[in-house]
Each structure stands twice: as C-alpha cells, then as structure tokens.
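Lecture notes, continued. The same structure-token format from the folding unit now serves as the input rather than the output. Read the line below as a description of shape only.
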C-alpha cells in the first residue's frame, strides 16, 4: 500500500526532527490507536514525542497503553516547541482542535498528513493519503513493516483496535482482504484481541440499550431519497444518564437495513450542536459528498458532519432550529 517513495519521504523528515507532536481527531479507535502506535514507533527511535487529541480519551479506549499520557487541553500546546507536526487519521486540520495554532505555525514546522479519509484535501507538507485503506492503522502497519520498525505487542494492540473500529469488527463495507490480512498479522504480533472486543463490542449497559431503543423507535423513512433517519436528543442522554459512548455503533447497526440507499443518525449535543453520522453500503452512493454540504467529510460509505442547532419536535417528526 504505502510506496517506497512515501517511506523515503517519511524517514527523511523524521530523521531531522527531534521534538514531534502527534495529533488526530477525538472519540475514535482508529485515531487514538494511530496516535499511540506512532508515538511508540518514534519513541523507540529516540524522539521526544507529545500526543494531543482535542478531547479526553473516552472510557472505551482507555485500555490502550499510554492513553492517560495524551494531552487534550490546547492551551498546553505551543507549536513553536516542536520540529514536526504529525497528523494521523485527521481528514482536515480543524479536526485536531489545533487549526488556529496551525494557521500561525512557525515557518520551520513541517506537517505530515497520514490518513485514509476520502475527503482529505492534502493539507500537509508531506501527504500520505490512501483512501482505499480500511483504517489509518493499516497504513501505519504497512509503513512499520516496510521500514523494519519493530512492532511490539502494545503497538499491535493499538493498530488492531483501529482496524476493528473502522471496519465495524469486519462487518461494514470497509472490510477488505488487506484489512483481514493485516489483522491476522497483528494477532501474530500479540495484539490483545480479547481485551479489544471486551472494550469496544461487549460494553453495552441496560441504559445504553434503552437509548438504542429510542433511536429505533424514531426511525423515519424518506422513500423519495431512499434515506432512513433517526434522532437522539440531549434530553434522552440526560434522562438515561448516558454519554456519547452509548451511541457508538448505532449508525453501523442501521447500515444493515436492506432496501435503502443510506442512513443518517442525528445526535443533539450539549454544546448546542447536532452531529450527523451517514452510512451506506452501496457503491453508487457517496455519503462524504453529502456530508461536505454541511461542512463535514469522511469516506464514500461512512461520513459525518456537525451543525449548529437543537431539535424541536413537530407533528410529523423533528426539525433543527437555531437559537
């Protein structure tokens, strides 16, 4: 997957960098796993590495090694302190929470953009974007293998977590022969697959399932568009005393519906925004293009966006209103 030319570019830039900031987006197994695996690879090469995510690591992924060392307060980050910014699994710089700092970055700060998102515009000085990859951790694994970077059990666990979360445990259209082969090789490296499944699959509480029940109860079919939608309100979350982690998997679960072009899950958030998660299994539908209309992005078959507003219930369903 990753070419020898890309590896040469990576190794050349990394050779000249000593203080490296690794970042990605929040609340994602591929993002968190990629950040930690990259940190471990670079630490082994004697680099001084800092990890940053725009939010605290959710409970689901705190089993990953060194997750407690990830910085998530942007005021603690000064890009002038680093030689290199290494972005992994971030479709755009805004997803890292460091967009303002990056716009005013020191002239000598290089940016590596290593990703697999369909809508990535190539914002780095070095762009290694393989849109056909099931997960960013697969690109990293290929890099480590070809560059003969030793893969420890901890690294393999992080990498496999990314593959399993982004393929829906090998159930969504992102599943490929390449992802299955990479997962098998990670198991041979000692990846803790039972722990991963315990944390990201067998982790639902009674109230989590009640929340899913409300989402299923509100399913709405738009026959003209072939689109199935549902909504989750902040009141739902408060009444059931659950957090955003309870919603993980709903969009992928609804993607198993037959006879429809796409699904959309809309989730009201505490900060006055609504997050949309789009999924499809069809080759002739590109939900990333739809997400882009609302300022979002992602992959052809899995994408998302965030808009300002809140839900208001009306006679025939729900509408989004701005305060």
């Amino acid at each position: 997957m990753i070419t020898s030319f890309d590896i040469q570019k990576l190794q050349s830039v990394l050779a000249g960098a000593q203080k490296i900031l690794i970042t990605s987006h929040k609340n994602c197994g591929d993002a968190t796993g990629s950040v930690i695996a990259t940190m471990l690879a670079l630490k082994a090469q004697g680099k001084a590495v800092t990890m940053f995510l725009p939010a605290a690591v959710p409970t689901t992924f705190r089993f990953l090694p060194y997750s407690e060392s990830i910085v998530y307060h942007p005021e603690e980050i000064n890009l002038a302190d680093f030689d290199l910014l290494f972005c992994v699994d971030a479709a755009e710089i805004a997803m890292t929470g460091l967009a303002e700092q990056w716009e005013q970055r020191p002239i000598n700060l290089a940016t590596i953009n290593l990703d697999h998102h369909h809508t990535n515009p190539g914002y780095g000085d070095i762009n290694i974007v393989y849109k056909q990859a099931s997960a960013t951790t697969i690109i990293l694994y290929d890099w480590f293998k070809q560059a003969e970077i030793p893969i420890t059990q901890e690294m393999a666990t992080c990498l496999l977590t990314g593959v399993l979360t982004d393929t829906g445990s090998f159930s969504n259209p992102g599943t490929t022969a390449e992802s299955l082969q990479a997962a098998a090789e990670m198991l041979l490296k000692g990846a803790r697959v039972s722990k991963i499944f315990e944390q990201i699959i067998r982790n639902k509480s009674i109230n989590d399932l009640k929340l899913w029940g409300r989402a299923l109860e509100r399913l709405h079919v738009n026959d003209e568009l072939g689109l199935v939608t549902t909504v989750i309100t902040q009141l739902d979350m408060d009444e059931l005393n659950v957090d955003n982690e309870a919603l993980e998997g709903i969009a992928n679960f609804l993607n198993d519906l037959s006879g429809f072009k796409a699904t959309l899950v809309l989730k009201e958030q505490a900060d006055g925004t609504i997050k949309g998660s789009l999924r499809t299994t069809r080759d002739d539908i590109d939900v990333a293009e739809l997400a882009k209309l609302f300022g979002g992005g992602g992959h052809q078959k899995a994408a998302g966006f965030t808009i300002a507003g809140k839900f208001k219930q009306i006679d025939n369903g729900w509408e989004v209103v701005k305060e």
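Point for the exam: The chain has a mean pLDDT of 92.
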